Design the sequence.
């Protein structure tokens, strides 16, 4: 997936934020790519607080999407912290590359 990064908006005044964001990423290798999620608590007058990190393999999501024939919802534990989790809804759409076609010669 290379280094693609996207951020959600900040949800003010809640201990249980719901972002309801849609994001798209370009995949390079369906078997090897991994989506990584890092969660922070935004602070205005001090450094943001790290809330945890987790990841999911794209191959696993693709397999589950094929089985359910649609998006899958996953509850992922946040690591590097004592507790925490995120719930995400994922879907994988695979588009084949267009093959280059030589222009036709007029007869």
Sequence:
């Amino acid at each position: 997936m290379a280094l693609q990064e996207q951020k959600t908006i900040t949800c003010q005044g809640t201990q249980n934020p719901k972002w309801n964001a849609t994001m798209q990423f370009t995949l390079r290798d369906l078997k090897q790519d991994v989506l990584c999620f890092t969660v922070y608590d935004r602070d205005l007058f001090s450094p943001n607080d790290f809330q945890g990190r987790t990841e999911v393999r794209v191959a696993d999501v693709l397999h589950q999407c094929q089985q359910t024939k649609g998006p899958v919802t996953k509850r992922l534990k946040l690591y590097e912290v004592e507790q925490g989790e995120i719930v995400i809804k994922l879907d994988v759409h695979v588009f084949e590359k267009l093959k280059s076609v030589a222009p036709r010669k007029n007869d």
